[in-house]
Amino acid sequence: MHPVVRTVLQRLGLGLVTLFVVSLILFSSIEFLPGDFGEAVLGQAALPETVAAFRKELGLDLPMHERYWQWLKGMLTGDMGNSFSGRGASGQDRSRPVVELLGPRLANTLFLAAMAAVISVPLALFLGITAALYRNSIYDRTVNALTLTTISFPEFFVAYCLILILSSFTKIFPSLANVGPETEFWERVYLTALPALTLTLVIVAHMMRMTRAAIINLMASPYIEMAELKGTPKAEIILRHALPNAWAPIVTVIAFNLAYLVVGVVVVEVVFVYPGVGQLMVDAVTTRDVPVVQGCAMVFAATYILLNLFADIISIITNPRLLHPR
Amino acid sequence: MNSERRGEKGEILLEMKDIVIDGFSDDKWHEIVKGVDVTLRRGEIMGLIGESGAGKSTLGLAAMGFARPGCRLTSGTILFDGSDLMTTSEADKRKLRGSRIAYVAQSAAASFNPAHTLIEQTVEATVRRLGKPEAEAKADARKLYRDLQLPHPDTIGDRYPHQVSGGQLQRVMTAMAMSPRPDLIIFDEPTTALDVTTQVEVLASMRDIVEQYNTAGIYITHDLAVVAQMADQIKVLRYGETIEDADTRTMLSNPKKEYTKSLWSVRSIEKAEEESDDNILRVDHVDASYGGGVKVLDDVTIDVPRGHTIAIVGESGSGKSTTARAITGLLPPTKGQVLFNGTPLPPMLKDRSVEQLQKIQMIYQMADTAMNPRHTVRDIIGRPLEFYLGLRGAERDRRLLELLEMIELNETFVDRLPAELSGGQKQRICIARALAANPELIICDEVTSALDQIVQKGILELLLRLQRELGLTYIFITHDIATVKAISDQIVVMLEGRVVEQGMKSDILAPPFPDYTKLLLSSVPEMDPDWLTNLLAQREQEGGLASAGN
Fold it and tell me: Which of B71, B89, B100, B113 would you mutate first to test chain A, the one with the most A CBs within 10 A?
């Protein structure tokens, strides 16, 4: 087997192990949280028997390992259990499967993340490469100063500034990104433009500076001097000689930022009233809706692991030492 | 395509007049090349020789109109084929570079881009700058690989730089320089990093190809014997100034200046050998391997006489340094043992007692990387004083000054960082660090190979004096036969993880030789301009190069 394939399979296996460990930690840490869903719903005044009956109905009376096993089995078959909310003291069960709650929200989140990524990644690479090319010029300094400024402000502030300029004053984009399941594609793009732009401004600096630093770091290499002595023009030196060797650190930072776009955008979602996973999770935490919290957390963990795996694979296949062993 | 512009042999190709180059350090500009003239005719090779810091590389690069970052071409004229590179635009200079003037760098391993195949890099300038069709350029590159006697010339170009050896890379780089058929090639210490046996092959192939295509060259080196094989004329540089200029034979037979003579005299130290039966260390039938894979040491037995020097010689990959790692416990042997003063040493470093560690010290080839760049000399030498001897405060500082005195440095060095020391001074500090432990045995791993000849001489003399005064035992790992002659009593010759021979210096260096020892000894360049030619003729006669060299 080619060593790269082996390494990729190895990483994939490790990713699964990590995900399993995360599920254990997640399940047990929620277990140790103070408070109880039964009491939270029924109120402090509820009779102990009522609470016990309610707990039994939800399966909360079973020993922890059994419940974990049930949950894990469900997860493996794509069933994340049912949400607790919708079950009231009345005894009626109007609860919905977590998958049903999470599904459309996740689609929204991924759509927004993709929008932001499609704008920010090429932009960051372009800015990073050109900043390296014109290092220490006015252009370089301006790009650095601007991106650093946008990353320095809290994201809600950036969001409100954009709303003020692009929505209130100029009315180019709507200030609310209230998409629904029926919203068609271009309408969706139009509605999510402002949140995507906000996220772009927040993450572009990080990626751009890593691109610039990774390239500049290589510019002192003897093989870059050799390229210069072979009469290679500056732009070609960067694109042909430096960039192919700089992918590993750049991709790591890109993966990190893409993961942030999926798991860390709750503030932006709130500002634009965007129905994403972040809001869902925050709501679930306030109502102690444990299955939803667990579902969201597992999705987040899987996102992180997948994106990092992806970054690892890119690092490996851009490293000729690993791709073409001796 | 080049035949029209290639002029007659003997016509002046490059004329540099009164070149001044400044370098920026300590917040101001200093002159590093101070008004040097160079005249080079077509088809001619000029040797530039001097210690490091003499400005040889800087001057060589200036011939391409290029200054490294932190340097600037201040004044003078660089007439290359009629146009002055001091005044031509960057774009025009770029058109010359890689097409009419090419460069062969010192470290081929670092100068090839790890991301591209060798042949892509070989033809890059020819295809992308000169516009030659790619297939044609690649076919020509393969022909050059063949001319340079690379193995598998038709496929080696499809490999990546990390997949071929250093000697092969150096030849591929020569092919890369040759691919656009330049008028001038700058060779910047192209064989310094190679073994003597590989060096001979690379030198021979470079010389042939330059001759074949009537290319002019500037050959930069600090090794006189090497330059004597390559150059028609030699220029000696020191501190950025020309010391002496002459054609090669005149220069070698009749050097005028004291400094030039001192360059010649470096190989003159020769220690008188002494026999001894009292062994301090015995490497007893040791096998070792990395990660349980291929055996890198195979049944190695070496006796080290007390108070004397044993030199381990062999080319890279022969197991010299691995032997040192087995002795120090960095690589536990898979079989056999190491006896020190008659008692076996624990195979693993971590199982050894402080006294056992203290008695065996090491000095490394790269003094730069063997010292923490953020530690001062006081920290570097003080650490073993505290760790092994428990010295503190004033007592420690007193001993520190004694040690500095032993290595011929003074107290002004105490608070310096490694970056503030020259190459030779760094190596001296490493010697002092080894001495600080009061060792009985010091393993010196290629300690002089990164240094200039004159500095080498100083270090070797220092080591010999310390041996006389302190009764130290040295294991001297080297591939340089001149160093072996200078310092050793006994010699061990290694090849492919095995000991080929062990014996007194006079026995090993006198015939009859086993094949490998002969190849190794005959590969050491001599101060005779005809040495390489004669050697090659002789080897061809014996048919020995093909069988022993590869």
Answer: B113
List pLDDT tens digits, range A44-93: 777 788 778 877 777 777 777 888 888 888 888 877 777 777 665 555 66
DSSP state of B77: E
Could you tell me the residue ranges of all domains in chain B? 12-268, 279-510
The overall average pLDDT reported for chain B is 86
- Across the interface, whether the CB atoms of A241 and B113 are under 8 A apart is answered yes
8 Å CB contact between B490 and B499: no
| CB within 8 Å: B115 and A318 | yes
Q: Report helix, strand or coil for B437.
A: coil
Q: Domain limits of chain A?
A: 108-323
A3 contacts in chain B (CB < 8 Å): none
The tokens describing B448, both together, are 């002089």
A/B interface, count of CB pairs below 8 Å:
75
Q: How many CB atoms lie within 10 A of CB A4?
A: 16
May I ask the CATH class of domain B279-510? alpha beta
Q: Is B471 helix (H, G, I), strand (E, B) or coil?
A: coil
Partner residue facing A230 (CB), from B61, B69, B124: B124
pLDDT single digits (tens) B257-302: 888 887 766 566 777 888 888 889 999 999 988 766 678 888 999 9
Structural tokens at position A66: 């059994």
CATH for the A108-323 domain, from 1.10.287.1770, 1.10.3720.10, 3.40.50.140, 3.90.1150.10: 1.10.3720.10
What is the nearest CA distance from A197 to chain B, expressed in angstroms?
35
* Identical fold between B12-268 and B279-510: yes
Q: Predicted ipTM?
A: 0.77
Task: Judge: domain B12-268, CATH 3.40.50.300.
Answer: yes
Query: What amino acid is encoded at A306 in this protein?
Result: L
